[in-house]
Amino acid sequence: MGQTFSAVSPAATASRDARGHVVVDRVAKTFQTQDTSVEAIREVSLAIRENEFVTLIGPSGCGKSTLLRIVGGLIEATTGRVEIRGRSAQEAQRTKDIGFVFQQPALLPWRTVSANVELGLELNKGAGAERLCSTDEILALVGLGAFAKAHPYQLSGGMQQRVAIARALIFDPALLLMDEPFGALDEITRAGMRYELLRIWGDTRKTVLFVTHSIPEAIVLSDRVVVMSPRPGEVREIIDVTLPRPRNEDMESAPEFVRIAERLRHLLRA
Q: What CATH architecture is 16-97+173-269?
């Protein structure tokens, strides 16, 4: 069988796809405190194509979440630029072209599933943001059509995270940013949720930037895996995942899968 991964330099990737959906160009971030400064990420360049699923992986503290938040316009880069379809990250966020899913679903316990999904609509009344599909359609997409009137305490951890995904999709954003969304789940639930996410992604074909510590999760989900170095985080290597889609659990024991996993472990240990 042929090789199932290839190393691609970040500069070459950004250059060949300069008009991609997301362009990160030499982004750096230093956090200043009263006594010291911490360089979180350094000179990161990356381009993400339309409808591509890209995962960031690296050691704890390497700046994965910081980079994700810069792409989402939640924090400012110290130097460098981010463009989303030619616009700034802040402009894309204002027009609801970005959806966010974090590790904790942060559902309001007194609101039903439907009401939690619709929270963004209520908070953005008059802001020019429009929904493109109904709450019922979104809940059906994430497999919660029968739970619209349930409350968070009546749901499992995986179901609560599906509500968070539905909430992120309510404005039909083109870009979905996901920061360890399954990190708080037990391993069995987590393994199932990655295939649920694959199904949702297959139906919606969003552009996704995903953060995880899990090597199997990164391989199962991704078109490409971006391996970051220890802090200050830099792009160490970008691995193309050429496993065919649709993917299933049987692939996790395939030689190609094992080879990519070994390569990623080597890069993370180096």
A: 3-Layer(aba) Sandwich (3.40)
DSSP H stretches of helix in the chain: 10-16, 64-71, 89-94, 113-117, 119-123, 135-141, 157-169, 187-204, 215-221, 255-269
245 CA to centre of own chain = 19
Concatenating the DSSP letter of every residue in 74-111 gives SS--SEEEEEETTEEHHHHHHTT-EEEE-SS----TTS
Report whether the peptide linkage leading into residue 232 is cis, meaning its omega lies within 30 degrees of zero.
yes
Domain boundaries, the chain: 16-97+173-269, 108-171
Q: pLDDT for 22-70, tens place per residue?
A: 999 999 999 998 889 999 999 999 999 999 999 999 999 999 999 999 9
The residue count of the chain comes to 270
